[in-house]
Amino acid sequence: MAAAKKVRTMIVRMISTAQTGYFYTTQRLRQGASLAAVKYDPKAKSRVLFVESRKTAKK
Predict the structure, then answer these.
(1) What is the tally of structural domains in the chain?
(2) How far apart are CA 51 and CA 13, in angstroms?
(3) Which domain holds residue 17?
(4) CATH number reported for the structural domain that contains residue 31 in this entry
(5) pLDDT at 47
(6) Are 14 and 37 in contact (CB under 8 A)?
(7) Which is a GO BP term held by this UniProt record (predicted)?
(8) 3-class secondary structure, 16
(9) How far is it, in rounded angstroms, from Cα 36 to Cα 53?
(10) What angle do CA 4, 5, 7 make, to 5 degrees?
(11) Residue 1 counted as domain residue
C-alpha cells in the first residue's frame, strides 16, 4: 500500500482589481502568503494590481 503524497503547491487565480474579469492562474506554496502582483490587463490596456482568489472546482 502506497503512502499518500503531500501536495506542497496549490493553483490560485489572480483576479484584476480593474474589475474587467481578466485573470491569470498560477501556482504557489500552500504555506506561503497570499499573492498580489502588478501585471498587464489586456482589457484595461494597462498594468493593474492582481490579487489572489482560490480557484474553484468546475461543476
Answers:
(1) 1
(2) 8
(3) 9-54
(4) 2.20.28.120
(5) 96
(6) yes
(7) translation
(8) strand
(9) 10
(10) 130
(11) no
